[in-house]
Design brief:
146 residues, alpha+beta, Thiol Ester Dehydrase, Chain A, two-stranded antiparallel sheet, globular, hydrolase, PaaI family thioesterase, HotDog_dom_sf, PAAI_dom, Thioestr_dom
């Protein structure tokens, strides 16, 4: 699949259209068919016991998969998650950022299916595995009015 948006363009898109997540999440690289995104773990992401909470792990997976899909189709802000499954496999390492490694498995006209493996930075074993399906809105004709 061809790359339409690189890491720099995806980060600029997040900063412009989703500023509420852009400070904590960054697309680090797109290498071949794998997009890598980082959650900069801060106190706000921690649950009692000092580990990263499930909602923060899920958010990383969702943002990373969204960006992996946009890297192929361009800046479609209205593409939305229609299905998500996540398996939490182990406790994240304390004091480390989380990395999501994503692959788009199928890209159709109206649906995209992708997966993300979440790791503590520097750790070989995954923290979580997530698969998601996104709905891609139909393209609007250039001269149409909303």
């Amino acid at each position: 699949m061809d790359i339409v948006m690189d890491a720099q363009a995806l980060n600029a898109f997040l900063a412009r259209d989703f500023p509420q997540v852009a400070d904590d999440h960054v697309v680090e690289a797109i290498n071949g068919d794998v997009l890598t995104a980082r959650l900069r773990v801060a106190d706000a992401h921690l649950r009692p016991g000092g580990t990263v909470g499930g909602p923060s792990i899920f958010a990383l997976a969702d943002i990373a998969i969204y960006c992996a899909i946009l890297s192929r189709i361009g800046p479609v802000a209205l593409a939305v998650t229609t299905n998500a499954t996540i398996d939490f496999m182990r406790k994240p390492a304390a004091g480390r950022d989380l990395l999501a490694r994503c692959r788009v498995l199928k890209l159709g006209r109206s649906l995209a299916v992708a997966e993300a493996m979440i790791f503590s930075d520097g750790a070989p074993e995954p923290v979580a595995r997530c698969s998601m399906t996104y709905s891609i809105p139909p393209k609007q004709p250039e001269n149409s009015r909303l």
